[in-house]
Amino acid sequence: MLKKINFSSINNSNLINDYISGNNQVFNFFTHKDIESSLKQRQKFNVNRLALKKALLNYHKNFKVSPNCIKNINKLDNNNCVFITTGQQAGFMGGPLYTLYKIITCIKLSKQIEDKYKIPVIPLFWLASEDHDFDEINRATRVDYTGILKTTTFKWNGIGRPISDLEISQNIKDSFEEFTKAHHNFKHYKEALKYFSIPQSKSYCHWSNQIWLNLFSECGLVVIEPNIINKISSNFFNDVIKKTSAISQALHKRSDDLELHNYPVAFNPNQAGRLFTFDKHGMRIRLKNNTAKQYSTDAALRPILLDNIAPTIAHVLGPGELTYHAMLQPLYKLLKTPQPYLQLRESFSILNNAQLILLKSLNVTPEHIIINRYKYNDIFNACLNNDDIDKYQQLLDIYQSLKSTLNSFKDTKSLQNPIKKTKDSIYQNIQMFYKRLNNVRLNQNNICPQEILNCVISLWPNAPQERVLSPFSLIAQHSTYLIKYLLELPLPTTANHQIISLNNER
Fold first, then answer.
1. 375-to-304, 368, 382 alpha-carbon distances in Å
2. Taking a C-beta distance cutoff of 8 angstroms, is the pair 106, 335 a contact?
């Protein structure tokens, strides 16, 4: 089953909704409305393809990759070769599911552009390994057998340093064991382990990129880290330093313009657009003067650096990233770099056929959970017949009458505590009876309450599924057939959220 729902059902940003609907007002904040115009602009901008190719080939020597990956890197020999890029922090166990969906969208869009324009296209994943926000990457979340969200984390005594410095410690290995073994009853657990297993390398970021290459190098995915291209980016860093004041002014003006149109402002213009460097302890700090041995970009400058050295025609990104790209158009102009077209990643909620059948038996749809935010009790209510509901309401009416009677006793000061305890006890017993009634009705229909809870939490784990759960969990459940299925789906012409049911017996 595949069903599409409006993207606004899981996203309430007016900027995102205007971008999807093609509202001309929002495109004042971006350079391109389509890839074709981005391609034409990029053809006028030269990059050092030889240096980029050499850097990529050297980097990939450290990985186990498919020949298709190396074949794609060699496409840089062709002056018409372009990139479709995406990226994310080095999240534990692959991070949230949306990272997987970014890469899938990137690969599909690359093939689509290559077929349409008959030019070489490379899908590139940028691992943001210079980021120092440790809390963004040190956790993975799953739904346990009781229907409760469980998060596994690891520790590091190097907080404040770039994640590229993080080595695979015993604590990381223990966290990996804890998280993966919690899936040992899943049908495709061993297959998932094969793709996510920790390699011999000591580098955490190497492991992170190896996961994506394990899953996608056959599709020609190429990966990169900032430190690989920083060596060929000295001109870019010098230009940023020279234009520090102009960058700040441009961000302040863009912030004012966005607020004027009631659009969100993603970056603090007093801080964004400035370079980092590293102190003697390896801590990542803001650049205070114009000289340093090493430079590192912040979130505002990071995509511009990549587009300055790589022939990028489109970025695949999530809703939050699109919001901050709305601030970057003037910076691209200042740094004389073409801003690519911005493609929203595909968005999915995945369930299995057994869960779908369960919901149908309760007259509940996945949309009730995803759009209407149905909770466990909401679905319980759907199991009761009208007579049950009427009688439950009668009990509540009786409770209200008893409350009124209890409150009418005189000398209420000395009776205040007993009255409160009596009212609470009556109400709690009614609710306990109501819960028991639900369980009886479910059992009469051969429905397990625990299965309902698991289904609700897995579809909406207090947020869209793709923002919370790990790719490992879904691959352990559905195998890499999930990836093959998603890769075969056509790219939607308009961004939406797709609800997909897969056969869990596969």
1. 43, 9, 11
2. no
**Which H helix or E strand runs over 430?**
helix 412-444
Task: Compute how many other C-beta atoms are within 10 angstroms of the C-beta atom of residue 93.
Answer: 22
d(CA 486, CA 101): 9
Q: Which of 198, 205, 213 is nearest to 127 (CA)?
A: 205
pLDDT reading at 193 higher than 50: yes
pLDDT in tens, 126-149: 999 988 889 999 999 999 988 899
Residue 191 near residue 480, CB atoms below 8 Å: yes
Would you tell me how many other CB atoms lie within 10 Å of the CB of residue 45?
A: 13
Q: Is 166 helix (H, G, I), strand (E, B) or coil?
A: coil
Q: What are the Cα distances from residue 276, in Å, to 131, 132, 155, 422?
A: 10, 11, 24, 63
d(CA 209, CA 88): 11
CB neighbours of 26 closer than 8 A, spacing ≥ 6? Answer: 15, 18, 19, 263, 326
Q: With contact defined as beta carbons under 8 Å apart, do 453 and 378 qualify?
A: no
Any idea of the CA torsion for 300, 305, 307, 310, to the nearest 10 degrees?
-160
Q: Are the C-beta atoms of 348 and 375 separated by less than 8 Å? A: no
**Phi–psi pair at 22, nearest 5 degrees:** 80, 20
Helices (H), 445-488: 449-459, 471-478, 481-488
Q: Where are the domains of the chain?
A: 2-238+288-347, 354-463
Residue 258 pLDDT class (50, 70, 90 cuts):
very high
Cα distance between residue 323 and residue 30, in whole Å: 10
222, 73 in Cβ contact below 8 A?
A: yes
User: Are 495 and 109 in contact, with CB atoms under 8 Å apart?
Assistant: no
Q: Residue 306 — φ and ψ, nearest 5°?
A: -60, -45
**Residue 33 DSSP code:** S
C-alpha of 487 from chain center? 17
